[in-house]
Amino acid sequence: MSERTTHATVDDVAALAGVSTATVSRCLNAPERVIPATREKVMAAIRKLNYTPNFGARALASRKTGIIGAVVPTLENAVFAHGIEAFEQALPPGKFALLIASSGYDPQREREQIEALVARGASGLMLVGFDRDPTVYEWLGHRRVPYVLAWASGDSQPHAGFDNEAGIAQMVGLVLELGHTDIAMISGMTEGNDRARGRLEGARRELARAGLEFRGVAEVPYGIETGARAFEKLIASHPVTAVICGNDVLAAGALRAAHRMGLRVPEDVTITGFDDIDIASITYPELTTVRVPHRRMGSEAARLLQQLIDGKEGQSVQLPTRVVARGTHAPPRRKDLPASA
Fold first, then answer.
1. Are 293 and 162 in contact (CB under 8 A)?
2. How does DSSP assign 2-35, residue by residue?
3. What is the pLDDT of residues 272-289, one digit of tens each?
């Protein structure tokens, strides 16, 4: 057989590598079960013969395509990009192919993407949050497609995530300990987004425990400029000394607006974020934020989804968050001191 043929068979690969066809199959389906030296011989033969496994036939026989689908709101936010990267890296090499779709926070678009991925034979799905029409879950259940929900927790459905309410409450607690009472919040849009809604509700509850409420709340789409405009409007309308932001991108926008307005951070105003993505450590000052375990969460989501695909009863996991104190928080400036003091 010519080395350039595109019609090599599994028998050809086995003969060239000097192994059985069963060993070739294990290298493709369960590479962790083959010793590295043998696996490398098989993969070298596959490359030399330009062999392409017939995954379609395998799928028809086993009803498992090896395709995993992931639908995220956006890939512009590093918190999703990092989580997806960890999710993919935790999948066994050669066993699964990952297809990713971005919904743009549009629930109808997300539903269409879920249906398209299942139509293309997805063996399982990773989705973000719990907040979607119940008929979507019913539809997946009828088709026996397992799924894992990430970036949130607390529901009975299979998930690998964290408690958004508890995470933001930690940050509000820090701001209250500093002595702030005039506090506002810039939140992501809460409709159809249980993560943003949980953070806003968690922050409100933590303030209520202290007998306080927000001086102002702005709900805006995630973005640096939307965060900046929201900050400018809040500061113009309310005498606040601290602004809690629903994520780091909004907080970066608030910081930009504060600098444009001539406000010193944290001397004149405290600004905090949520997620601890890369931008949090390169702002000036570096951003005080809530660290989300997005990489570990991606790995745990992959582990759980594999268990569900294999017919096992997987265990959901709730991961901890913590405040990362950097340079954008301080006690409120005494009202009897001038701004330049």
1. yes
2. -TT-S---HHHHHHHHTS-HHHHHHHHH-GGGS-
3. 999 999 999 999 999 999
- Report how far residue 132's alpha carbon sits from residue 209's, in angstroms, rounded to the nearest whole number: 30
Tens digits of residue pLDDT in 108-138: 999 999 999 988 889 999 999 999 999 999 9
| pLDDT tens per residue across span 177-235 | 999 999 999 999 999 999 999 999 999 999 999 999 999 999 999 999 999 999 999 99
Which residue, among 210, 230, 212, 233, has the nearest Cα to 221 in the 3D structure? 230
Q: How many CB atoms lie within 10 A of CB 20?
A: 10
Q: How far apart (Å, rounded) are the C-alpha atoms in residues 151 and 85?
A: 14
Q: Residue 89: which of 104, 68, 103 has the closest Cα?
A: 68
Tell how many helices (H) and how many strands (E) occur in the chain: 12, 12
CB 279 within 8 A of CB 268: no
Please write the tens of the pLDDT for every residue from 146-191: 999 999 998 789 999 999 999 999 999 999 999 999 999 999 999 9
The pTM assigned to this predicted structure is: 0.79
Cβ–Cβ under 8 Å, residues 174 and 329? yes
Classify residue 308 as exposed, middle or buried by CB count within 10 Å of its CB (0-12, 13-18, 19+): middle
Q: pLDDT for 65-83, tens place per residue?
A: 689 999 999 988 889 999 9
CA distance linking residue 334 with residue 155, whole number of Å = 44
The two three-digit tokens of residue 307, written as one number: 């268990």
Tell me how far apart the alpha carbons of residues 51 and 255 are, in angstroms, rounded to a whole number. 54
> Average pLDDT, stretch 324-341?
75
Instruction: Compute the half-sphere exposure of residue 260: CA atoms within 13 Å on the CB side of its CA.
Output: 12
Taking alpha carbons only, the member of 60, 56, 83 closest to residue 70 is 83
Give the helix, strand, coil percentages of the chain, each rounded to 5.
45, 15, 40
Rounded Cα distance, 46 and 31, in Å:
14
